[in-house]
Write a structure and sequence with these properties.
6 helices
Length: about 240
């Protein structure tokens, strides 16, 4: 039986595929909400307009997550190609991935052009470079989770605003006697709608965005693991003297 030292081939497209499935479900749910006038009803009932703000933040943050997921996948594909010795790990990949991996090898003290197909990736060891690159890769994930937290807080702010509007309508509305109950309930419904719809939009947007950044986080950890394997393949410096 012939032994082989090639790295196991991993599915670098797994995370973009998962994101595309999640994005398709989200897009379909959004289409149904618009087609059945649920979205229009929510925006019309929300007097604070926070639901619209939450929706816009969600769309922008989803684009941010998508860009980084696909960029991380390209970088992971280049890193795995380099580990397997498949040849064009730097030259044959997307420009962003090639620049990232080439910069990493250069910072480790390796000439990028000589990296593909080499069993040893330079000399010396510098764990500080790994920490810098890992922190840089994890930064979009941290930003994403911060946005998730902001969406939840915006929903809670909308809840408070809704109750304030409801109490204001109660203070300014008709005297709550039996013949004015219907008018009082109608005047209070605006504030209640604001409270409920902003809470709903904030929780739903935060949950869906959290799923996307969970995918991004896992892809980033796979890339960091590939960089660690690249760094550990570098031989220790020869003893002097």
């Amino acid at each position: 039986m012939q032994a082989t030292s090639r790295q196991p081939r991993s599915n670098e497209h797994f995370f973009p595929q998962i994101w595309l499935i999640a994005a398709s479900v989200i897009a379909f749910a959004g289409y149904v909400a618009v087609d059945q006038s649920y979205a229009q009803m929510m925006l019309a009932a929300d007097r604070s307009r926070l639901s619209l703000l939450i929706t816009l933040i969600f769309v922008v943050a989803s684009c941010h997550a998508a860009w980084h997921i696909f960029a991380t996948s390209a970088r992971l594909r280049a890193a795995n190609a380099l580990l397997r010795g498949d040849g064009p790990g730097l030259e044959g990949d997307a420009g962003g991935a090639a620049a990232f991996l080439g910069g990493f090898l250069e910072d480790l003290g390796e000439e990028p052009a000589s990296a593909p197909g080499r069993g040893a990736l330079g000399s010396g060891r510098n764990d500080g470079i790994l920490e810098i690159y890992a922190d840089r890769l994890r930064s979009p994930v941290e930003i994403g989770w911060f946005i998730v937290d902001v969406l939840i807080r915006l929903g809670l702010v909308g809840t408070i605003i809704g109750f304030i509007l409801m109490l204001a309508s109660l203070a300014e509305g008709p005297i709550p006697v039996s013949k004015d109950i219907r008018a009082l309930l109608i005047s209070m419904s605006g504030g209640m709608g604001t409270a409920l719809y902003t809470t709903l939009s904030g929780l739903v947007a935060a949950t869906l965005l959290g799923v996307q950044h969970m995918i991004l986080g896992r892809s980033v950890e796979h890339l960091v693991a590939a960089l660690i394997r690249i760094e550990r393949r570098r031989p220790a410096p020869a003893p002097t003297g």
